[in-house]
Task: inverse folding
């Protein structure tokens, strides 16, 4: 029993089970296979973006611009498709644009050393404006049949986006756990001066993380565009950054950097998805969903700080 | 803007650069738009800058102390809407104003309690408040605008005294009082001290918790005040009011020379930064540039303001 409790993801697992029980009691429609499939299906974008956000938060940073990057990428994919570029090439170009956005963030944060919160706050508005600019303010729809495969297609009776998400999760879990690049992220986030003395290039690591985040958001936005079927540049992914951030923090990531796992984050995303779905199924006003997200962010930081305080209790001095 | 500024022979170079930038914007828009250079337009700008300006005062103090408050826009909307809802219940309008201010103060106190007392990361807590309060605003308000306030209330935001907007006069007075507090009182010195070295301030026997707590309470109060003025100026309390106002406020503060890592900055600089922002927005509005493109320009300006400071190695 004690071993189970010592697993890093134990608190979030307990929370998730608690919430599932709670909503099952409130609404009879909640506890059904079809509903769980729906929850998974609706949160694919969040799952993929959350991988990137986990790495950013592991560095002790924060990326507020992911929602706007999603908007830029999704609208430009729409634009490419309307220009008659083939679906595969359009998707690829979209991912490249995501990477470019990540490079812009990475350049200012890693090379110019501006605090990430300021950079991503600024790029959040800049990318959003660019997205609206290139879309001309209209809805992007009329995606061709071939493109819809990326969001709605199935491979061996499993939905294609889910497969992509599972693949990406597996790759990045491996990357973070077993490769040097991944361990570098942990060490830079845990103690960047020590990492620097150990010969790790902090700017390079940061730049890589933001580029990877851009890549992941690019992939997520292709799936998003293909799944939703219509994209409006001014609203697409509006509250995505906040929700994903909440998911990472709930999943055990520490805002101070260096602590957190992708598995925990995925549970966090699932938790957020379940709460949202449950609230809607229990026929609570949809306005409450946003309020709940904010409340969860605060709850997450409270838990985060408590954990940190407990860990530092035995140490000398006032570290917290 | 990046390289030639450091070569200027002035000691207090930053303020001069800001004034030059302001002058540049004024001259540029005077050429671009025939409507820009007129007393009516300038008074109009003064009238419109009050909300951003009011919030910029505590924001400057908070950034100097080494933290940041992103929840100001949502607090503004929350107090505006609570005021409106209280008014709809039939209370006297001034009672409602006090109610709105208290709502803002309460939000600020929650921020302050979590950040100061429990040392949680200011950015995360205030982002949480930003999302939560904006959601609550829609819950309270159900997304519809509230209007029909009595005429005596509109005095706050629409009346002119000797040709100058009443709310702009209030703003200038607030800036003067705040500047006095920052420059001449112990409280101001503590704020600079916390921004430079929190440990030393604490070991000097000063309650860092209390100073931080007061700062976030002030931020809540001033955001609420901005909400009251906004409702009075626009004659309606809307759930969307104050969205993205934090971009304007933070950009004004950072252009005004306040250092992002805290410890340095002044309210005089923020005031000039504020003028730069509002005249820029007004000029772009007159030229018919969409609000979203304005956000792009402001975002770029924000990056430039911070990047510039880092390079000159201040």
Result:
């Amino acid at each position: 029993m004690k071993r189970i409790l010592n697993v890093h993801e134990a608190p979030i697992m307990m929370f998730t089970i608690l919430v599932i029980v709670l909503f099952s009691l409130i609404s009879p429609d909640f506890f059904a296979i079809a509903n769980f499939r729906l929850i998974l299906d609706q949160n694919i974008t969040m799952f993929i973006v959350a991988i990137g956000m986990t790495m950013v938060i592991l560095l002790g940073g924060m990326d507020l611009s992911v929602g706007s990057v999603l908007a830029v990428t999704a609208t430009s994919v729409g634009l490419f498709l309307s220009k008659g570029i083939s679906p595969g090439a359009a998707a690829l170009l979209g991912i490249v644009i995501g990477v470019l956005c990540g490079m812009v963030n990475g350049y200012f944060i890693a090379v110019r050393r501006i605090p990430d919160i300021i950079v991503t706050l600024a790029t959040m508005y800049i990318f959003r404006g660019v997205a609206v600019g290139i879309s001309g303010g209209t809805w992007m729809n009329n995606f061709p049949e071939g493109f819809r495969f990326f969001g709605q297609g199935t491979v061996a009776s499993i939905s294609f986006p889910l497969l992509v998400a599972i693949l990406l999760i597996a790759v990045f879990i491996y990357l973070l756990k077993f490769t040097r690049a991944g361990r570098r992220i942990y060490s830079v986030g845990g103690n960047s001066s020590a990492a620097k003395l150990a010969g790790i290039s902090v700017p390079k690591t940061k730049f890589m993380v933001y580029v990877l985040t851009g890549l992941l958001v690019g992939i997520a936005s292709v799936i998003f565009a293909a799944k939703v079927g219509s994209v409006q540049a001014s609203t697409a992914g509006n509250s995505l950054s906040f929700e994903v951030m909440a998911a990472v923090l709930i999943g055990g990531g520490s805002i101070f950097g260096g602590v957190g796992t992708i598995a925990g984050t995925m549970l966090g995303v699932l938790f957020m998805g379940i709460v949202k779905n449950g609230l809607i199924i229990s026929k609570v006003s949809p306005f409450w969903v946003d309020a709940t997200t904010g409340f969860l962010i605060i709850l997450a930081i409270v838990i985060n700080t408590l954990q940190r305080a407990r860990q530092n209790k035995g140490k000398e001095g006032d570290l917290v | 803007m990046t390289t030639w500024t450091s070569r200027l022979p002035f000691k207090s170079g930053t303020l001069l650069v800001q004034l030059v930038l302001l002058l540049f914007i004024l001259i540029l828009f005077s050429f671009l738009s025939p409507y820009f250079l007129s007393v009516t337009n300038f008074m109009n700008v003064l009238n419109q800058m009050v909300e951003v300006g009011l919030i910029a005062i505590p924001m400057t103090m908070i950034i100097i102390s080494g933290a940041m408050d992103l929840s100001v826009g949502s607090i503004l909307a929350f107090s505006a809407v609570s005021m409106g809802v209280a008014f709809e219940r039939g209370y006297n309008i001034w009672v409602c104003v006090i109610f709105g201010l208290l709502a803002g103060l309460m939000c600020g106190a929650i921020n302050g309690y979590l950040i100061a007392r429990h040392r949680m990361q200011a950015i995360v807590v205030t982002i949480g408040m930003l999302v939560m309060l904006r959601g609550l605003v829609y819950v309270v308000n159900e997304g519809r605008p509230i209007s029909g306030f009595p005429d005596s209330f509109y005095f706050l935001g629409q009346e002119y005294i000797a040709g100058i907007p009443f709310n702009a006069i209030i703003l200038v007075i607030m800036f003067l009082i705040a500047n006095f507090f920052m420059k001449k009182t112990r409280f101001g010195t503590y704020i600079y001290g916390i921004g430079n070295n929190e440990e030393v301030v604490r070991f000097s026997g000063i309650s860092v918790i209390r100073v931080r707590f007061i700062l976030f309470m002030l931020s809540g109060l001033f955001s609420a005040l901005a909400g009251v003025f906004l409702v009075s100026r626009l004659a309606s309390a809307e759930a969307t009011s104050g969205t993205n106002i934090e971009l304007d406020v933070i950009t004004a503060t950072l252009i005004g020379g306040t250092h992002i890592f805290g410890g340095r900055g002044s309210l005089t600089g923020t005031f000039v930064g504020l003028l730069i922002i509002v005249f820029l927005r007004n000029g772009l509005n007159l030229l018919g540039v969409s609000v979203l493109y304005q956000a792009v320009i402001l975002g770029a300006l924000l990056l430039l303001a911070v990047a510039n400071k880092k390079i000159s190695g201040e």
